[in-house]
Amino acid sequence: MVHELALAMEAVRLVARDAARRGCQQVTRVKLLCGELTAVMPEAMRLAFTCASRGTLLEGAQLDITTSPAWAQCSCCGEEFRPEEWLLLCPRCHTPGARLLSGREMEVVSYEGK
User: Fold this and answer.
1) What residues form the annotated binding site for Zn(2+)?
2) Per-residue pLDDT for the chain (114 aa), expressed as one digit of tens each?
3) Any idea what DSSP says for residue 47?
4) Domain extents in the chain
5) Binding site: which residues?
């Protein structure tokens, strides 16, 4: 939950700053994209978001979370694959340490307000 709280606080900070700059009085919905390797638990993130948004123009906003899959590319043979372990072992040539292409992102995709 501590991990999610830090991420939620940063998301609230970023959205609140941008929404205020645009003259928004209240944010009603926030859409996040979280990579599957970020270890974000959606229910914990929703609770953290509720706590982090108290007293801000995001208070009461709905939080939508989309999880993006992890993808890696082997630095030896170029194979793109879904990693099954943290070693990023290539399923074709078995070389460890592939380059992670996605799965660690955490971004605010959009928000709605009035």
Assistant:
1) 74, 77, 90, 93
2) 678 999 999 999 999 999 999 999 999 999 999 999 998 999 999 999 999 999 999 999 999 999 999 999 999 999 999 998 777 899 999 999 899 999 999 999 999 999
3) H
4) 2-71+102-113
5) 3, 74, 77, 90, 93
Assign 48 to helix, strand or coil.
Answer: helix
Whole-angstrom distance, CA of residue 50 vs CA of residue 42 = 12
Q: Pick out the residues of the known binding site for Ni(2+).
A: 3
Short-list 31, 26, 23, 53, CA closest to 114: 26
2-71+102-113 in CATH: which number?
3.30.2320.50
Q: Facing residues of 78 across strands?
A: none
State pTM to two decimals.
0.84
Q: Could you count the other beta carbons within 10 Å of the beta carbon of residue 15? A: 23
Q: Which tokens is 107 given?
A: 């971004």
